[in-house]
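Morning F.,

Quick status update on the modeling queue. The single chain you submitted on Monday has been processed. Sequence for confirmation:
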Amino acid sequence: MSSYILVAVGGGSLGLLIGGYVTQALSWHWIFFINLPIGIATFVVGTALIDEDAGLGIRAGMDVGGALLSTGGMMLAVCAIVSSSQYGWRSSHTLGLGAGAVVVLAVFLLLESRLSHPMMPLGVMRSPGLLTSSLSEG
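Structure tokens below.
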């Protein structure tokens, strides 16, 4: 367990050092390009190490509705939180967006409970460790 913490702290520190060097040596605009070589390296290593799997695909039951509902619900929630500084937490604007987010995410959970191939199988939330970590990160 302590090795995971050491790696996480080391990676975060390394990222701060490299980010500081890049902004000082080049410009802060260059921080947006750091993901490009990391993405390419991840793709190359992943292609070499991960076995290819065709997956379900659209014809075999890809959960498009779940993807749209989860994205829409989270967007409404983020809009409610971000706009609360302008409108206030008790405003009809913020409360309406928040209620909309709750409704859309509830419909998402209802849909996921009824699909044979859901995007998020609700059974995995029976694991106490996964449920606790998911709730604490959200």
